[in-house]
Amino acid sequence: METVVRAAGLTRRYKMGDAFVDALRGVDLVICRGEFVALVGPSGSGKSTVLNLIGGLDRPTSGQVWIDGVELSATDERTLTRHRREHVGFVFQTFNLLPRLTAEENVALPLMFSGVPHQERLDRARALLERVGLTHRLTHRPTQLSGGEQQRVAIARALVGQPALLLADEPTGNLDTTTGGEIMALLQELNQEGDLTLLVVTHDPEVAAFADRVVKLRDGRVEA
Amino acid sequence: MTLRDLLRTSSGNLGRHPVRTVLSAVGVTVGILTIVTMVSLGVGVQKEIVDQFKSAGLETINIYPVTEERLDYMPFGEPQRTVLITPEIVEEMRARDDVVEVRPIVYVPSGAEVYLELGDEELNVRAYVGDSTWGFGDPFTEPPRLLAGRELATDSEGELLLSVEALESLGYVEQSEWEDFVGREVLLVLKAPRGETASFPFVVVGVQESMYWGANIGVSDALALKSWWYNDPDILEHEGYDRLRIKAVSLNDAVKIVTELEEHGFRVESLRLILDNMNRALVVLQTMLGSIGTLALLVASIGIANTMVMAVYERTKEIGILKAIGASPGDIRRLFVAESAFIGLVGGVAGTILGWLLGLGLNRLILAVMHWQEIPVRGTFFVVNGWLVVLALAFATIVGLLSGLYPASRAARLDPIEALRYE
Predict the structure, then answer these.
(1) I need a labelling partner for B60 at 20 to 30 A (CA). Which of A144, B17, B68, B307 fits?
(2) How many domains, in total, are found in chain B?
(3) Which residue of B has its CA nearest to A156?
(4) pLDDT at B139
(5) Interchain pair A81, B324: CB under 8 A
(6) Which of A58, A114, A118 lies nearest to residue B417, judging by beta carbons?
(7) Is residue B165 predicted with pLDDT exceeding 90?
(8) Last residue of a domain, one of B269, B286, B303
(9) pLDDT at B403 (0 to 100)
(10) Greatest mean pLDDT range, B33-47, B133-147, B325-339
(11) pTM to 2 decimals?
């Protein structure tokens, strides 16, 4: 199967005051196209750091990471931006929608940075909101939406750039169990519909149960 | 990100905090208000002066006789004239092809007491040759207006134009009463300090509204008055005329004549020379006043920069989100710079409008005060024209833009992970 993500010997060292903290101590990971992978582990195990490195928000201290064949650790800011714009979509625990924008405007926002014309942006946003079941909420602002609805908007926003890879960091962390289950079911559906690859960071075994494969992280390393 | 997206997004962001936007823009408003008011005053006054001078005629040249330097040990002695405006020179000028009009002028001695005998009434007046537009005087004054009768004939003798102000002081305020004076014979009496008097008969040919409280007479009559005053029957031969006013065919001719006459040793003034000097002074004035506004804008830019730094702090998380969903550092920088420029533009628009209104108000005020002081002034002294508006708005926008550069580059450099974690 075609590889979408390949990480080799990833380490990440943070400076905190005078001390150094090793968040990652050599992570190797391969994810294939269409896979649904859950990255689990206790807090401080380095789950989010892996996600950030794969998403191009951060650079590793050493090691390499390839996304769709492009090596990210040594590239310039411009390439990282393009990577975030074209290859990945982020879903956050706290949804991170822009409060002043409506649901459809939030979803359309990433396309503004890739230079898609205004009307096409809105059309694509509406289509995606319909897909996540929010046709009746197009012009609502985040404060007028429930937590589950906000996360659906965030998922639609992550998908609007048609990325190969969806990265979700504790996507159900701020939701009740029922709503969290619905969101996970939606993600599973999206994964099964096309060749969307999913990497979900969680510490919740029920969430991890939705995945095809579970990768466990402990103290900055992948547990065998 | 297209320009339209940029404008839409940045104006939307500013709309989120209207009060803060307005307060930040106030500094720019004050600065632009000052600049627009000051520069429009400079432009207006300059335009008025140029227009008035043009209507007075830039082809006009005034020639004066040259006198010896006044001697320190003879402070009361009249200095001797060394270069005279003789009748020959007047004839020479009249013979030229590049000259339209030549008018010799004689001043009635300023120390003389002059009054008119109008039947039983006496009226103190000032006797003079020519009208206010003959000199360069005050370009904002209105030229005299004829109310009854006719103008003086060229080279008139024994003819006199009365000022309406003088008649009004005697209680003659009706047009018909003024008409009655036309054709009347009057005596102009010149009185020396020691009491001797001389009477000169005149016929009133007209009544005019003039800045002088007086009697307008011809050159030969003025010479007769002066001749009696100095007890010198050949005064013209000894002193020449006091001034010669020449109107050239064109501005180029005027420049040529000025050069020639200066070579002859005359003291020459032309409107062109005065206008050039005035323009130079006005440019200095405008620059000075403009600088005050620029200083205000400098202060304003610090205010905008402060607002934008605050905005970057407040929106740290948003910046993180934007970066995560694909905004480049350049996109972030452009967004913040555009917002900052927008604040400048908002302040600029308000400042331009207020400056224009202030100019209108001040103009009315000045004219009202002048009218109240009975100074016959007219005109528009504050002119806001197209280029001033464009420059003011561009300047305001650039000030905003520059103020935003530093905050914007801070925003662009934010680490996305740190920014996303920020609450």
Answers:
(1) B68
(2) 2
(3) B325
(4) 46
(5) no
(6) A58
(7) no
(8) B269
(9) 95
(10) B325-339
(11) 0.70
The closest alpha carbon to B222, from B93, B299, B319, B112, belongs to B112
Looking at residue B76, its amino acid is: F
B250 plus B296 within the same structural domain: no
Cα–Cα distances (Å) from B188 to A55, A119, B118, B180, B203, in that order, read: 105, 90, 9, 18, 10
A81 near B CB under 8 A: yes
Q: How many C-beta atoms surround the C-beta of residue B296 within 10 A?
A: 20
Clarify whether residues B292 and B345 are in a common domain: yes
β-pairing verdict for A88-91 and A165-169: parallel
Model ipTM value = 0.94
Q: Mean per-residue pLDDT for B118-142?
A: 65
Per-residue pLDDT tens for A101-114? Answer: 999 999 999 999 99
Asked if B321 lies within 8 A of A115 by C-beta distance, the reply is no
One domain for residues B294 and B334: yes
Taking residues B14-42, report their average pLDDT.
88
Residues of A in contact with B328 (CB under 8 A): 77-78, 81, 113
Q: Which residues of B touch A (CB under 8 A)?
A: 1-2, 4-5, 9, 12-13, 16, 317-318, 321-329, 331, 416-417, 420
Residue to substitute from B325, B334, B414, interface A, most A β-carbons within 10 A: B325
* Chain B contact present for A122, CB below 8 A: no
Q: Considering only residues B222 and B353, tell me which one the structure prediction assigns the higher pLDDT.
A: B353
**Does residue B110 sit in helix, strand or coil?**
coil
**Residue B318 sits in the same domain as residue B234:** no
For residue B6, give the chain A residue with the closest CA. A112
Residues B282 and B264 in one domain: no
User: Where is the domain boundary, B222, B252, B269?
Assistant: B269
The residue among A96, A118, A120, A169 with the most chain B CBs within 10 A of its CB, best to mutate, is A96
Per-residue confidence (pLDDT) for residue B142, from 0 to 100:
57
Q: Is B321 helix (H, G, I), strand (E, B) or coil?
A: helix
Using a CB cutoff of 8 Å and minimum separation of 24, what contacts does B285-293 make?
B285/B42, B286/B38, B286/B39, B286/B42, B286/B43, B289/B34, B289/B35, B289/B38, B289/B39, B289/B41, B289/B42, B290/B35, B290/B38, B290/B39, B292/B34, B292/B38, B293/B31, B293/B32, B293/B33, B293/B34, B293/B35, B293/B36, B293/B38
Closest by CA position to A165, among listed A128, A134, A194, A204: A194
Please provide the size of chain B in residues: 423
Residue of A nearest to B15 (CA): A100
Alpha-carbon distance B118 to B1, whole Å?
88
Is B315 found in the same domain as B186? Answer: no
Let me know whether B96 and B244 are in one domain.
yes
Determine the straight-line distance between the first and last CA of chain A, rounded to whole angstroms. Answer: 22
Percent above pLDDT 90 for chain A: 84
Helices (H), A39-76: 47-55
Contact B123, B113 (CB under 8 A): no
Same domain assignment for residues B232 and B307: no
Nearest to A112 among B5, B318, B323 (CB): B5
Per-residue confidence (pLDDT) for residue B376, from 0 to 100: 66
Domain range for B50: 3-54+277-421
3-class DSSP state for residue B338? helix
* Higher pLDDT pick, A69 / A142: A142
Nearest to B24 by CA among B405, B296, B337, B344: B344
A161 at the B interface (CB within 8 A)? yes
